[in-house]
Amino acid sequence: MHHQVFDLFFKATLATLEMVFASAAIAVLFGLPLAVLLTITRPGGLWPVRPIGRLLGIVVDLTRAVPFIILLVVLIPFTRFVMGTALGTAAAIVPLSITAIPYFARIAEVSLREVSPELIDAVRAMGATRTKVVRSVLIPEALPGLVSGLTVTLVTLISASAMAGVVGAGGLGDLAIRYGYQRFNTVMMLWVVSILVVLTILVQIVGNAVSARLRKNFT
Amino acid sequence: MQNTGVAEANEMLKVEGLSKIFNGHYALENIGFSVHRGEIVGLIGRSGAGKTTLLRCLNGAENLDSGHVLVEGKNLSVLKERELLALRQRIGLVFQGFNLLQSRTVAGNISLGLEILGVPKKERQQRIQELIHLVGLEGHETKYPSQLSGGQKQRVGIARALAGHPALLLCDEATSALDPEATTSILALLETINKELGVTIILITHEMDVIRRLAHRVLVLDQGRIVEDISNELLNRGEAKHALTRSFISRENVEDMEAAGYASSGF
Ligand SMILES: Nc1ncnc2c1ncn2[C@@H]1O[C@H](COP(=O)(O)OP(=O)(O)OP(=O)(O)O)[C@@H](O)[C@H]1O
Ligand SMILES: [Mg+2]
To answer: Which SUPFAM superfamilies match (chain B) (predicted)?
Structure first.
């Protein structure tokens, strides 16, 4: 591959990785507490305050119902407000995070719900506060599942980040649009697709390995 | 009438007029008994009799529909949430299903009991070692529950329950998930804990044999009521009054016979 072209791909891949991992980090930061709240506010849960659970559930589901491509456009003013611009890699992190937060929250919620209610009840009966139960029981016991959920979120973010190229987000999606689509450069397009596929497979392999490692001690 | 100070100090637990209603039915009805410090009391009854519910009431995990529970003279119903959490830490709990964290090692699971008590990190290590020694799990510190036998898991559960030097240990079918050998070893451990640490023990079971081997006294629960409250001594002399108590004893004999190789007739 030509040196300049390689450079182009290298930079684009880095930009994609930056977008994907930054938004995944934000998704965990906000999505995990959200998932915890969704879980513990269920009837019979650790903190069964139904109105809060219902309200959060509605917000999460509404956000998830909006197609990403529409969210990208709708969020432009918000992105401009937060980042000062709606263009570029950093700006793309805003819409990507906004879709990834509820997405991860719902996936994480499934894992958290699988933690034995009897165990939670038992630790609570031993005199643990709710916060202690969340930190020492709920999250650690759900960790292998949470890691799998994060893997799925990362994979989804890789494809979403490519889509963000449409609105000038930079990264591999941007390359595909500018060279592959607008200039009919099929080879470029194939390269972009190949890199995306490889990234996805790598994330999946690492994610599965970490999850399996954590699950090793679980029955 | 005034209680003497001595009598009060000697009383670990007092239950009076306790009732608990689930969906319009009495799960527990007018329960009353008291337990002395250092006593081992067995609680026996058929499935659904209300044993677990009663134990949960003793721990303040259920709101009572009437009556009250006094633990070391403190009325659970009037305690604030914070005080209740503190009191629960004075009570050790041992469960049939162990309820260990899969994500933590033996030492980590015992540590949980100490963390709940707010024991500082540097003091935990020492106490964990003491507890591991007490329950005979030396060499298993870094194993995960999935690598342990049932009896070993229950030892971890007991160590965790003892973390805060509890005065009272509540065991819900602590041996029901164990084979006879592990049952024997766990019963021996509980006896040691009672004798050497002076911990009062209330033990739920559906096997009369467990009670005979360990308890000083037995409460028989049937459909939410205590139908018999009798010392082990009187029980062994065959002085149980209630038919249910006698049926538990005779069932035990049947089981003994089956174990000894006599085929049970009929079914
Ligand atoms: N949270 C609850 N809500 C409604 N009913 C309940 C609840 N907990 C217990 N019960 C009912 O109360 C009764 C007593 O239950 P409990 O679990 O105390 O019985 P048990 O003696 O421990 O039985 P087992 O030997 O099967 O453990 C049962 O009829 C049960 O269905
Ligand atoms: Mg029970």
So the answer is: P-loop containing nucleoside triphosphate hydrolases (SSF52540)
Find the B63 Cα to ligand 1 centroid distance in Å.
Answer: 14
Residues of A in contact with B113 (CB under 8 A): 126
Q: Is the pLDDT of residue B255 over 70?
A: no
Q: Which two tokens stand for residue B104?
A: 């933590």
**Is residue B149 within 8 Å of residue B115, measured between CB atoms?**
no
pLDDT surpassing 60 at residue A77: yes
For domain A3-215, the CATH architecture is Orthogonal Bundle (1.10)
Say if ligand 1 is within 6 A of residue B50 CB: yes
Domains of chain B (ranges, CATH numbers): 4-90+166-260 (3.40.50.300)
Atom of ligand 1 nearest to the CA of B54: 18
Closest CA to B35 of B71, B68, B67, B1: B71
Q: Kindly state whether B264 is in contact with chain A, defined as any CB-CB distance less than 8 angstroms.
A: no
Counting from 1 in the atom list of ligand 1, the atom nearest the Cα of B53 is 18
Tell me how far CA of residue A99 lies from CA of A63, A93, A132, A161, B54, in angstroms: 7, 10, 30, 11, 48
B2-24 pLDDT, tens digit each: 444 455 679 999 999 999 999 99
Q: What are the domain boundaries of chain A?
A: 3-215
Asked whether the predicted pLDDT for residue A86 surpasses 80, the reply is yes
Q: How confident is the model at residue B263 (pLDDT cuts 50, 70, 90)?
A: very low
Q: Each residue of B219-245: pLDDT tens digit?
A: 999 999 999 999 999 998 888 888 899
- Which strands sit side by side in the sheet containing B66-71, from one edge to the other? B25-36, B11-22, B66-71, B74-75
Point out the least confidently predicted range of A8-22, B1-15, B106-120.
B1-15
Q: Whose CA is nearest to atom 27 of ligand 1?
A: B47
The CA distances from residue B196 to A105, B96, B228, in Å, are 50, 24, 29
ipTM of this predicted complex? Answer: 0.91
Taking CA–CA distances from B55, the nearest residue in chain A reads: A125
Give chain A positions within 8 Å (CB) of B156.
none
